Amino acid sequence: MPPAKRRKTAATSEALDRDAEGQAPSSEPQGTRTVDKPHEDKEPVIVDTGAASADQNKERQERFKALQARAQKSARTNLKEAAAESQRLATDPNLLSSLSRKQAFASHNLLKADTVAAGEDFERKRAWDWTIDESEKWDKRMEKKEKHREDVAFQDYTQDARKIYKRQLRELQPDLEGYEKQKAAAVQKAALSGGLEIVEMDDGELVAVDKNGTFYSTADSTDFIENKPEKSAVDRLVKDLQKAEETRLKKRRDRGKGDDDGDVTFINDKNKQFNQKLARFYNKYTAEIRDSFERGTMI
């Protein structure tokens, strides 16, 4: 019995129509595509991929040219900096400072010569550029510098001790912050114990009043023996002592007292050179006398 024919319904006819439409060749040109929108009432949008690719390539070329320009600029800058660094390393800074001093000295002499040739007072004309206060400070500085230049040589031990004391005072750095902290702690401790009374003035200022007269130190006070210095102060004291010892040993070596291979017959380096000069000329005449004297001393 032959198979029964299937009846074509409305649903199967619609499916066959859709398959036929999907297998139909596309009539759109190559390089374009159609984008279907979800809404059926709008027309399809055609996007040109060739134009988009051209714009993208153009943008990439512009970016590449910008990177090339930046690389060339960086190379030129690095080359310039390297040349400047090489020139700086090849130049002696002492020579530059010497040339600047010579230039300033030459300018000073030229200005002085022109002023004298014009019949004017050079010092008076140069003082026009300075105020009275600055001029007085400069004069005091020059006077102090002249005194220091004259005070370099050794005169006596009192002057030497005075110079050492002044140098130590210049190098001393007081700890003002630590002093204020210790002072505040001492005032607070005395106020709590009843030795000090804190009184507020009319303007709001706080004043400490010593009621018993025991807060401030006197000649009979012994509170300073309980003071414990900081480690930095102790280190600074040790450093000063070591520096003084090194200076003493250096002077001892300069005087020749560190040599154990003979007697010291001089008081300074100049006297040592004079004795050596005498020895070169007169040792051949006094050798026998010195030998006889040494033998007699040994006996």
Can you put this structure into words, describing what you see?
The structure is a single chain. It is built from 9 helices and 4 strands; from the N terminus they run αββααααααββαα. It is mainly α. The strands form 2 sheets. It has a two-stranded antiparallel ribbon with strand order 1-2. A two-stranded antiparallel sheet has the order 3-4. The chain is extended and about 120 Å long. The termini are far apart. One of its GO terms (cellular component) is catalytic step 2 spliceosome.
User: Biggest sheet: strands side by side, in what order?
Assistant: 1-2
The helix fraction, in percent, is 55-70%
Number of helices: 9
**Which of globular, elongated, flat, extended, rod-shaped describes the shape?**
extended
Number of DSSP E strands: 4
Biggest sheet details: 2 strands, antiparallel
In whole angstroms, the N-to-C terminal distance is: 166 Å
Mean pLDDT: 77
Structural class call reads: mainly alpha
Note the beta-strand portion.
5-15%
Outline the secondary-structure elements:
Elements: H1 10-23, E1 32-35, E2 45-48, H2 49-90, H3 93-117, H4 122-126, H5 132-150, H6 157-171, H7 176-193, E3 196-200, E4 206-210, H8 231-255, H9 269-298
Antiparallel strand pairs: 1-2, 3-4
